Amino acid sequence: MKTSIRIGTRGSKLALWQAHHVADRLRSAGLAPEIVIITTKGDIVLDRSLDKIGAKGVFTEELEEGLRTGHVDIAVHSAKDVQSTIPADLELLAFMERERVNDVVVSFDPDLDLNRPDLILGTSSTRRKAMLRRFLPQATAAEARGNLQTRLRKLEEGQYHGLVLAYAGVHRMEYDGLIRHVLPETQYVPATGQGSVAIECARNLEPALKAQLHAALDHAPTHICLATERAYLRTMEGGCSIPSFALATLVGPDSQTVHLHAGLISLDGQQLLEEVRTAPVAESERLGTELAESILGCGGREILEAIRQGRNE
Ligand SMILES: NCc1[nH]cc(CCC(=O)O)c1CC(=O)O
């Protein structure tokens, strides 16, 4: 069996951190990893917000093409950026152990007060914008696209008082010193997959190699949680640009119960639909699907329809 593994990744600093994290694990498992940088549409189109370029797969398509042609053996993604349904000839082989899931506010102002009346917070996520409108109605949510470094430069230039970002990315880039507030995950529920790294491969990759990669990279509890959240997202039919959220955790004496907190918020923050349900681990995907069906049936469909109509104007 071959031991050299070509790892496909985007070229951003965060993506490269993740690819190196994978490479380290593979080396420990006796494999010889090599990192191959592949540029995606999401890296090139920086002047429009994600919901306008059609967020579906903007960070993944070119990587997936590399898996098909055999140019790379595996592709590394932030799990949050992976579409809810992936092409039939590809599979998600592993989810790596999840980081703290929270959103955080970073700022150069050590005393940043989230309740100041003129607060401007930068974010590019529809979920975060909607949540800010609801939970911090006095604040202005301003568009902040680009990679972490670009956003921090805009922050430094004074375009915002703070940025709302995933703890995971901030921590991986070693900007922990700028974290002023950790937003509670029970209120600012994170996006599906936030904080985990996903490994994708072609279905027809050599089975023994797949097994070895899975053993080296997969974290079983994270995998269960992500499968639950992804089943939720798939049923929500939205991709990453709709303001849905889902956080699964394992609870109970033997971590044999999945606890799912998920929902949908209207863009103006006025309507928040959320539910908490639990199920045995063996029924985790059904839990995700059923919770999504419940949200859709209790007004979620109308929220999604309103968002779609707004976008098409
Ligand atoms: N959509 C961009 C993106 N994709 C993954 C992360 C951070 C790492 C993670 O959530 O795993 C980020 C930046 C952010 O949301 O602040």
From TrEMBL:
Keyword terms: Porphyrin biosynthesis, Transferase
Superkingdom, taxonomy of origin: Bacteria
GO cellular component, one term: cytoplasm
Cited InterPro entries: HemC (IPR000860), Porphobilin_deaminase_N (IPR022417), Porphobilinogen_deaminase_C (IPR022418), Porphobilinogen_deaminase_C_sf (IPR036803)
All copies of domain Porphobilinogen deaminase N-terminal, residue ranges: 5-204
Pathway noted in the entry: Porphyrin-containing compound metabolism; protoporphyrin-IX biosynthesis; coproporphyrinogen-III from 5-aminolevulinate: step 2/4
Gene3D superfamilies registered for this protein in UniProt: Periplasmic binding protein-like II (3.40.190.10), Porphobilinogen deaminase, C-terminal domain (3.30.160.40)
A Pfam family: Porphobil_deamC
Domain annotation Porphobilinogen deaminase C-terminal: ranges: 225-296
Phosphoprotein recorded as keyword: no
Catalyzed reactions: 4 porphobilinogen + H2O = hydroxymethylbilane + 4 NH4(+)
E.C. designation(s): 2.5.1.61
Any single GO BP term: heme biosynthetic process
GO molecular function: hydroxymethylbilane synthase activity
Function: Tetrapolymerization of the monopyrrole PBG into the hydroxymethylbilane pre-uroporphyrinogen in several discrete steps.
Oligomer and partners: Monomer.
Family: Belongs to the HMBS family.
Protein's recorded name: Hydroxymethylbilane synthase
